[in-house]
Design brief:
Layout lengths: L39 E2 L2 H10 L2 E8 L2 E12 L2 E7 L3 H6 L9 E15 L7 E15 L3 H15 L12 H6 E7 L2 E7 L17 E4 L21 H4 L2
Antiparallel strand pairs: 1-8, 2-3, 2-5, 3-4, 4-7, 5-6, 5-9, 6-7, 6-8
Length: 241
């Protein structure tokens, strides 16, 4: 999968918090798991790598007293995550104004990679190898125009690095219809499972196959749009995928 890239067409939003890829996040009551604590990590570099390798996050919040979870694209710039949506949707209106505002939407954002199927002799010990990140915080709507433009570039470049510079930027009408939410990386934890089967000693002799089936994500061959001018060659940054 591609690594995340900085926005290209506009100045990047100011990085927030501790320098990138240094140190660890401070554990909090929300980020310390009740089970599987040895698998939890607060390493900043690990968290960033898991976030940068995924494409879709799940954004959870409470609406009208009911929990809601929405899958959405996102982008990371330093110690901030950005997600976008329609200005008419509920999350942006609930999130309110920009930096310094006393409004905001409490959220929980998660990202997960499945790296392998762990098949045990017993049904109880089946599992998966995975890498995940959970972010707790308050999402706020981005109102500064330059930060919004840079955040949208970051969202595009998160999917394919370099793409924002090779596509038409949003026009005034599109910007007016699009809301961007900012979530600072502060209360953050990663959780990882690797390795093989954990089995009960008395089950080792059972006549069932056991082991790990690795899983990876691969790119297929590029499929040009049928209206694409034949003279437009596949860009190098796409051929590299």
């Amino acid at each position: 999968m591609p690594e995340n890239a900085a926005p290209a067409a506009h100045g990047a939003p100011e990085a927030h918090g501790a320098p990138e890829s240094r140190g660890a996040y401070e554990p909090t009551e929300l980020t310390v798991p009740t089970r599987g604590r040895p698998r939890a990590s607060y390493d900043r570099e690990l968290v960033h790598s898991i976030l940068d390798e995924a494409y879709v996050c799940h954004l959870g919040f409470v609406r009208d007293g009911r929990p809601v979870v929405l899958p959405t694209l996102y982008g990371r710039v330093g110690e901030r995550l950005y997600v976008h949506g329609s200005t008419g949707s509920r999350p942006p209106r609930m999130a309110g104004g920009g930096a310094g505002a006393d409004t905001g939407l409490p959220v929980c954002l998660t990202v997960t990679h499945v790296d392998g199927l762990v098949l045990a002799r017993s049904a109880f010990h089946h599992s998966v190898n995975y890498r995940s990140v959970v972010v707790h915080g308050t999402a706020r709507q981005v109102t500064d125009r330059e930060e919004k433009l840079a955040a949208l570039d970051a969202l595009v470049d998160h999917v394919v690095p370099g793409r924002s510079a090779d596509s038409r930027p949003a026009n005034a009408k599109e910007l007016a219809a699009t809301a961007v939410l900012r979530l600072d990386l502060a209360e953050v934890s990663a959780k990882v499972r690797t390795g093989g089967v954990n089995e009960e000693p008395e089950d080792l002799g059972l006549p069932h196959w056991a082991g790990v089936i690795p899983m990876t994500t691969r790119y297929g061959a590029a499929q040009p749009d049928r209206e694409l001018d034949p003279s437009i060659a596949l860009p190098g940054y796409l051929a590299a995928l």
